[in-house]
Amino acid sequence: QTDALKALRDVPAATTDGCTIQLVANISDAGDMEQVLENGGEGVGLLRSELLFMGRDSFPTEDEQFDFYKKVALEAGNRPVTIRTIDIGGDKELPYFGLPQEQNPFLGYRAIRFSLDRKDLFLVQLRAIIRAGVFGDLRMMFPMISNIREVREAKAVLAEAKKELLKEGIAFDQEMQVGIMIEIPSAAVTADILAKEVDFFSIGTNDLIQYTLAVDRMNEKVSALYDPFNPAVIRLIAQVIAQGQKNNIHVAMCGELAADPMATSLLLGMGLREFSMSAVSIPGIKQRIMDLSLSGAEAMYQKISEMDSSEDIRAFLSGYPNA
Ligand code: PEP
Ligand code: MG
């Protein structure tokens, strides 16, 4: 690690006009925490829990899951950690579970759809997460939400988990914050409705771009169409952030766009205040934020919101590297 990186590690990510931004990390294991702290991450915005379920031949028990989440909580100290419930399916397979081959796996049986279909397994994961919440500042988040019914059903399973643990006399975090990923266009469009059901949003741009533009995120052939600066994507993101503010809930972004320095001013200008990314991207984005002013970023977003094409937006953003 260079001295410059170390010096950057302990300063807050603040704009030149004093707006402080939360920079947190995406991780998949407790062992990743060391790298998060080394890079100045202030917590974890996305723990992808899939690793816990992969590379084995049966579903992990509640205690196995509890141990995993507890370890993450302890490694994080008192820093916040957002645990995403299982996001299996799509690009993430689970061999022992015999998930069916699908024509369109990204549009199929994945994430919360799987969890709500297998509430027996979902309940186990939720019990393990809230039990581990006793050991740190854990939050929980549901992936691939497309409508309010899914949120309510997931919360009902959470209520069931709490009721059971209470009856069994097992300690758990009674007040854990619950959030959802905004990564399907229907969720972005109805952010005002969904905001009333949850404590926070995290925008998953990897999937949001894929679904908004109908571009398979894994397919090289169409990767040129996979465009975060398409005005449709920008409008959806802006709308989610605005609805979060209006409804007083926290909004973060955990998709790759959060780590793109070209997008930083635009996202700040829209009102985003929490960015979650791979640990190694944090210092670069922090440096970028420290070079920007919030007022400049807001002016930039105003101009961009009136532009017609990704080409114009990109040209504008790259023409003003310090705006
Ligand atoms: C996303 O879709 O942006 C996201 C963060 O989730 P994943 O990449 O795990 O699908
Ligand atoms: Mg996703």
What does this structure look like?
- The chain is an alpha/beta fold.
- Helix content is 44%, strand content 13%.
- It has 14 helices and nine strands.
- Strands 1, 2, 3, 4, 5, 6, 7, 8 and 9 form a nine-stranded mixed beta sheet that branches.
- Strand 3, helix 3 and strand 4 form a beta-alpha-beta unit.
- Helix 5 crosses helix 6 and helix 11 crosses helix 13.
- The mean pLDDT is 95.
- The protein binds phosphoenolpyruvate (PEP) and magnesium ion.
- Phosphoenolpyruvate binds next to strand 3 and helix 9.
- The site of magnesium ion has 5 residues, from helix 9.
The largest pleated sheet is described as: 9 strands, mixed
| Beta-strand proportion | 5-15%
Q: Given the C-alpha coordinates, what overall shape results?
A: globular
How many DSSP helices?
Answer: 14
Note the topology.
Blueprint: H1 3-9, E1 13-14, E2 20-27, H2 33-38, E3 44-48, H3 62-76, E4 80-84, H4 112-117, H5 119-132, E5 137-142, H6 148-168, E6 178-182, H7 185-189, H8 191-194, E7 200-203, H9 205-213, H10 231-246, E8 250-253, H11 264-270, E9 274-277, H12 282-291, H13 294-304, H14 310-319
Parallel strand pairs: 2-3, 2-9, 3-4, 4-5, 5-6, 6-7, 7-8
Antiparallel strand pairs: 1-2
Helix pairs in contact: 3-5, 5-6, 11-13
Bound molecules: phosphoenolpyruvate (PEP) and magnesium ion.
Properties at a glance:
binds magnesium ion, about 45% helix, alpha/beta, about 15% strand, binds phosphoenolpyruvate, 9-stranded mixed β-sheet, about 325 residues, single chain
